[in-house]
Structures are given as C-alpha cells and as structure tokens.
Q: What sequence folds into this?
C-alpha cells in the first residue's frame, strides 16, 4: 500500500482542527442545556401495599 505524502494532508488536518477548536466549538457550547440537573429529593416516597382481591 503506498504511503501518502504528508505535506498537504498535515496542513489540512491542522486547519480543520483549528477551525473546530476556534469557531465551531464555542458556538456549540454556547447553547443552553435542555435538561438542567436538579437536586435529588432525599425524602423517600410513601408507598402503599397492594390489596389483593383474593385475600
């Protein structure tokens, strides 16, 4: 399998990563999260036992 000349491909890879890091990533991170975390309730839920009809 022939090897690629890294001369043009390395520059393209670097430009792609810099574009992602400097332009695209801040725009994506600026969106608000739709499901914000909430505090967990420490009180247990009150459950009732099931009444079976044949007992």
A:
């Amino acid at each position: 399998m022939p090897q690629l000349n890294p001369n043009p491909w390395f520059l393209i890879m670097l430009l792609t990563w810099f574009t992602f890091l400097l332009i695209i990533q801040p725009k994506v991170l600026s969106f608000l999260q739709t499901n914000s975390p909430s505090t967990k309730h420490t009180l247990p839920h009150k459950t009732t036992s099931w009444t079976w009809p044949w007992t």
In short: The mean pLDDT is 78.
